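Go through this:
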Amino acid sequence: MPPEPKTCASCGRTIEWRKKWERDWDQVRYCSTACRKRGVTKTDQALQDAIIELLDQRAATSTICPSEAAKQVDPDGWRDLMEPARRAARRLVDQGSVEITQGGHVVDPSTARGPIRVRKARS
């Protein structure tokens, strides 16, 4: 029986166990070579902080769009930060801080396609 899946430290997507990782599963942190090279930058951390800050400023039931965090971090180049903002939201989901929704329903961050909203995690 394969071990439980993990979450990529860079993009926040689920890493499924693979036979080739059998001996090294405990050391696997990234889902791909691209994520291993990218890692988590200062900008990625700033996006996570912006998401938490924006949610703290709103009502407990409110949501934000990842673009709001991107605009807060870089008002002029926010479009280039859209995918990094989504990655930051997925990492926060793994930490249990937030939930990602589509159409008002919580969705799996690894498989969500299209526009998403981010809200504080509900107990």
Q: What stands out?
A: The CA atoms of residues 5 and 16 lie 5 Å apart.
